[in-house]
Amino acid sequence: MDKGTEIYKKLIDEFVEMSRSCVDANRIRSRETDSEMKNILLKLSPEDRDILADYILKAYSDGIFDVLDLLEWYACCRNMKITIDDETLPTDKFEGIQNDFIGRCDGWEWTKD
Q1: φ and ψ of 108, to 5 deg
Q2: CB 79: neighbour CB atoms within 10 A?
Q3: How far apart are the first and last CA of the chain?
Q4: What is the torsional sign of CA 50, 56, 59, 65?
Q5: Residue among 95, 100, 22 nearest 61 (CA)
Q6: CB-based contact 88:11 (threshold 8 Å)
Q7: Residue from 30, 98, 34 nearest 68 by CA
Q8: Residue partners of 81: CB distance under 8 A and separation at least 6
Q9: Helix (H, G, I), strand (E, B), or coil: what is residue 14?
């Protein structure tokens, strides 16, 4: 496998890892947040805090998707290239940046080269 493909796969997998945890969601679960939010969280049951934290985590993951979707548009429509360590990433090699992210979030395996 070429170095650009390895870097691309690692980058997408790092976005997937990022999408699984977010500071705000973690703070809601533990009630370690600013005083205004803490007063609200004290009124919620642990189950309701988990629901709220999951909602925030989903919004965070959706934000990552939206950024990757925009990058995909730039790559397809504006001929943008992503270069890391002098390697141009093959953003069109698989299913597209945002779709590779979603697939990997859902447990898809990378295809063999």
Answers
A1: -65, 145
A2: 7
A3: 6
A4: negative
A5: 22
A6: no
A7: 98
A8: 75, 88, 89, 91
A9: helix
This prediction has a pTM of 0.90
Neighbours of 48 (CB within 10 A): 12
**What's the alpha-carbon Rg for the chain, to the nearest Å?**
18
On the question of pLDDT at 31 being above 90, the answer is: no
Cα gap 97→104, rounded to integer Å? 11
Question: Of the candidates 101, 99, 74, 87, which has an alpha carbon nearest to the alpha carbon of residue 20?
Answer: 101
| Interval 55-89: pLDDT, tens | 999 999 999 999 999 999 999 999 999 999 999 99
Residues in the chain: 113
* Residue indicated by tokens 């697939």: 103
81-104 pLDDT per residue, tens: 999 999 999 999 999 999 999 999
